[in-house]
C-alpha cells in the first residue's frame, strides 16, 4: 500500500518507515526481474517456465473462415427502449470524453462511437429526445442540429 494512501495519525513516522523498508525490497525485485530478462535475451531458458511452447500462427493449408456473429446485435426488444445502452461502448468509457467543456476536443469520443455497435440507436435516441449536450451517435450538438435542419 503506498504510504500516501493512509497516514496513521498516532504514528506520524509510519509513512517514512514504510518507504525506507520497501525501498530495498523493490530494488531487489527490480534487480531480479532485469537479471531474468537479460538471461532470456541472451538465449538462456528459464527452467521454472512451465508454459507451453508458442503456437504456430500460420497454420499449414487454408482454413475455412468461421462466422462467430456479434453478440447482442440488434436485439433490444426485451430490454426496453434504452436496452441498447447496455451494449454501448461509451458505457465503459470516461463520460467526460462525451461531454467536453466548451471548445474541448471531441476526437476521443467520436473514435469510440465509430467502433460502437449501437451508434445508430444512440443517434436516433438523441434526435428523438432533443439531446442538446454531449456526443451522441458520433455527432456533436452542432452536427445533430445541422442534421435536423437538413431533414426538415
Automatic annotation (TrEMBL):
The keyword ATP-binding does not apply. It comes from Pseudarthrobacter siccitolerans. The keyword Acetylation does not apply. PANTHER family: TRANSCRIPTIONAL REGULATOR WHIB, TRANSCRIPTIONAL REGULATOR WHID-RELATED. One of its GO terms (biological process) is negative regulation of DNA-templated transcription. It holds the Pfam family Whib. Its cofactor is [4Fe-4S] cluster. Keywords: 4Fe-4S, Cytoplasm, Disulfide bond, DNA-binding, Iron, Iron-sulfur, Metal-binding, Transcription, Transcription regulation. One of its GO terms (cellular component) is cytoplasm. It is found in: Cytoplasm. PROSITE patterns: 4FE4S_WBL. This is Transcriptional regulator WhiB. [4Fe-4S] cluster binds at residues 90, 113, 116, 122. The gene is whiB.
